[in-house]
Amino acid sequence: MNTIIVARNLSKVYKMGEVTVEALRGVSFEVMEGELVVVLGPSGSGKSTLLNIMGGMDKPSGGELYYMGTPLHSANAKQLTLYRRNEVGFVFQFYNLLPNLTALENVLLSVQIAQNPLSAEEMLNKVGLTDRADHFPSQLSGGEQQRVAIARAMVKNPRMLLCDEPTGALDYKTSIQVLKLLKDFCDTYSKTVIIITHNTAIAQMAHRVFYLKDGRLDRIVENENPLPPEKVTW
Ligand SMILES: Nc1ncnc2c1ncn2[C@@H]1O[C@H](COP(=O)(O)OP(=O)(O)OP(=O)(O)O)[C@@H](O)[C@H]1O
């Protein structure tokens, strides 16, 4: 397996007037292609900060970050825009669908900006929403909206999916559906999936679990036998 992400001694400092917050304090790790990583940690431990930096939405204050050997820590705004557009799919807790576009149109929007997209219809079919293609987000349940958001992220055909609390707003049964889709994307297409969550149960399906604590990577635990999503319970 190839290494997709290398992080070396990453730090992030937020300064607001007199107040300085050290959100990341020297975090180092590697992530492999085709790997499913779950990042766990208490509130404020730096999970979203790390995801934002890996997604090219923010830059580290110090340290180095490489994507497929290309430095992101020194990339300019244009390079980061292309990185976000072509290499990464994002899934957030609150879906972020455009309310005035149908499910299919939300997915097609992603197709238009991607370099090497998959088929929007095929992705909607994959997430089980072919018959809801013409529905607007307000006509869909939370779980259905999240499935559209996943189709939108996958259709770009990115090497990596970054997911911030993807099941945070969903009930158990719907969460498992969503986790199955993420795991399936990882397995079928050999893609990297990184999931940030408060839900420790989800860690059971990961290849590796990163535990963040107070801005530091406290430990990395490898699961010898990751559970299939349908076996994960909470
Ligand atoms: N834009 C910002 N400006 C200032 N401080 C920030 C900013 N973003 C995050 N922080 C601070 O950095 C620290 C880490 O925040 P972060 O959101 O990464 O944690 P988290 O582990 O994702 O937390 P949660 O699980 O509650 O979402 C916190 O102390 C937070 O207040």
From TrEMBL:
List, alphabetically, the InterPro entries matched. Answer: AAA+_ATPase, ABC_transporter-like_ATP-bd, ABC_transporter-like_CS, MacB-like_ATP-bd, P-loop_NTPase
User: What does the record give under GO molecular function?
Assistant: ATP binding; ATP hydrolysis activity; transmembrane transporter activity
Q: Which GO terms describe its cellular component?
A: membrane protein complex
Keyword Metal-binding attributed: no
Concerning SUPFAM superfamilies, the annotation shows: P-loop containing nucleoside triphosphate hydrolases
Against CDD domains, the record matches this protein to: ABC_MJ0796_LolCDE_FtsE
Identify the residues that the record assigns to the ABC transporter domain, covering every copy.
5-233
RNA-binding as UniProt keyword:
no
User: Which controlled-vocabulary keywords does the entry list?
Assistant: ATP-binding, Nucleotide-binding, Transport
Task: Please name the Pfam families in this protein's record.
Answer: ABC_tran
Which PANTHER family does this entry report, sorted A to Z? ABC TRANSPORTER ATP-BINDING PROTEIN MG467-RELATED (PTHR42798:SF2), LIPOPROTEIN-RELEASING SYSTEM ATP-BINDING PROTEIN LOLD (PTHR42798)
Family under the similarity heading:
Belongs to the ABC transporter superfamily.
What protein name applies here? Putative ABC transport system ATP-binding protein
